[in-house]
């Protein structure tokens, strides 16, 4: 398992805010924040078409909000919680609605 | 002095994030957050042209982040800190760099 080379080393505030300023991407981030494990690209709870979803993942990845790892032919996504918290403490907590049970 | 009718009653997360996802607007918000008093449109520390600035103020106002009041021929801007904090606790603190002294 290797880190995604597209992941940003440092998080840039306007890029991060732009990436989060979309209902689909915000929902993907919410699902990741409520998950203890990585989520494969095809396993998100969404009605968005696969190609559109890839576009959204790319924006989140480039902003440094998520990281994608390849494992056994799957693309597994995780939220970069520590990096986000280090750069913008409390941001995710401020904007994410509570996870559904 | 009356409230701006364009100010949103309730703040919508993606609209707010989009409004903040711009370096000029984020800087206007930073200046307002560091000010004890309202700031007239022409008194911000910026090199942006007046017409462009009006556009940015409009986006911030429509998102509900700032309110503009007219007083004595001036348009005075304030940050809607209480409303922002009620809707997204800690958001402004998370993304605004410390005010310059």
Number of strands of chain A: 3
- Helical segment tally of chain A? 5
What does the main sheet of chain A amount to? Answer: 3 strands, antiparallel
The chain pair with the largest interface is: A-B, 17 and 17 residues
Q: How much strand content do the residues of chain A show?
A: 5-15%
Task: Please name the CATH topology of chain A.
Answer: Arc Repressor Mutant, subunit A
Strand order of the largest sheet of chain A: 1-3-2
Features:
alpha+beta, 3-stranded antiparallel beta sheet, homodimer, 3 strands, 101 residues, globular, Arc Repressor Mutant, subunit A, 14% strand
Give an overview in words:
The structure is a homodimer of 101-residue chains. The first copy, chain A, is an alpha+beta fold and 101 residues long. Chain A has one domain: Arc Repressor Mutant, subunit A (Orthogonal Bundle), CATH 1.10.10. Helix content of chain A is 44%, strand content 14%. The first copy, chain A, contains 5 helices and 3 strands. Chain A has helices at 13-20, 23-33, 50-62, 81-87, 91-95; strands at residues 39-40, 66-71, 74-79. A 3-stranded antiparallel beta sheet of chain A has the order 1-3-2. In chain A, β2 and β3 (74-79) form a beta hairpin. In chain A, 28% of the residues are buried. Residues 1-6 of chain A have low confidence and may be disordered. The A-B interface holds A 13-15, 17-18, 20-23, 26, 88-91, 93-95 and B 13-15, 17-18, 20-23, 26, 88-91, 93-95.
